[in-house]
Design goal:
Blueprint (H helix, E strand, L loop, with lengths): L6 H8 L2 H4 L6 H11 L3 H7 L5 H16 L10 E4 L5 H8 L5 E5 L2 H8 L6 E4 L3
Parallel strand pairs: 1-2, 2-3
Helix pairs in contact: 5-6
């Protein structure tokens, strides 16, 4: 099976950020990259055609409906959006009437962006 080299696409949409982190990167290195990227993150993902939050939340919503069969209100379900970033998943959860969602991330700057969405009950910074 042929492998696909994703590096050119990553460079096109994410610039040098995509080459900074390696398997030897520390949590602090990761935090620093995302802190610096926070202001442009959504724009960069949109230009790259990133659409993962919508189908992921639709899948979760369907699974919750199938398991609970409407016996639990969506507002009573507590969700932790781990790796919340700028809040893209939180926005989709809010569109599906989930109102008890917390954000957790390693980057304070990403969480500052997520807070602007007004869809999270609580915002948690993961300490390094």
């Amino acid at each position: 099976m042929a492998s696909r080299d994703h590096k050119p696409a990553y460079l096109k949409y994410y610039g040098e950020r995509s080459t900074v982190l390696t398997e030897k990167s520390t949590d602090d290195d990761v935090r620093r990259v995302y802190d610096e990227w926070a202001g442009e993150y959504d724009k960069d993902l949109n230009s790259a055609g990133y659409a993962c939050p919508k189908p992921m939340v639709e899948f979760l919503d369907n699974a919750i409906h199938e398991v609970f069969q409407g016996k639990i209100a969506k507002g009573d379900i507590r969700i932790m959006d781990a790796g919340a970033g700028t809040g893209l998943v939180g926005i989709e959860l809010h569109k599906h009437d989930y109102s008890n969602v917390d954000a957790l991330d390693i980057s304070q700057e990403m969480l500052n962006e997520a807070k602007k969405t007004n869809v999270y009950s609580k915002i948690h910074l993961r300490p390094l």
